[in-house]
Amino acid sequence: MPESYLNLRSTEEWSGVWWLPDRPDKQVPGTLHYAPNGTLTLTLIGGFEDGLFDPEIEGRITSHDERTSWKAIWGAVRNQELTILDCISVASQRRLSSAPNTPERQTILATSALIGSHTHNENETVFSQCEISVENLNQWAASPAFTFSWELLSDGRPNGHGGIEVAPPEEPSVDIHHAKWTLAHVLTLPTIDYFRGSTVARTSETAIVRVTRLFAVEGVGG
Length: 222
Prior knowledge:
Structural class: mainly beta
Strand content: over 45%
Order of helices and strands: EEEEEEEEEEHEEEEEEE
């Protein structure tokens, strides 16, 4: 369970080390940037060879304009695995005196990212479940986990006693195309924050849609 869900309307950054799946010995530091328009940009300090070079002939190396693309680049970020898919280099900086395989700085665009897994391509099965959080889903679900109560004096005024109860609601589900779709709720444990002028108790509820892959049955593919 993630500590928090990504907000796709906000920018996000993941800094760590990155490498090609077949070259785990060559790890490069860099930062993956996400923009609200869906753009994923990986900026590396160093980089991977993205040009095509002819072998050295009489002390000369010939470079071509074509760029190399990669199906996947792996990363280690925030103590977790991360994969970016369908990657292509859009800019590489290197000195003329550098060896062909040593760019000093590189910018790579990717079409998608997987947080929490290393995979070789977009068709590889690596997740059996995903969770989706949608804006206003708590209101649409109409199944709150919180109930409130307070005590009244004989004249109808509150006497200062009350309570908040947290109880996980039922999770309705339906099976669609070999997957179970569940309306679920993620609850946090209560915490108390002490401030100079007040004390605040906090807990939170997030309504999500959980999609779980069902195991293949006889005569049906996964």
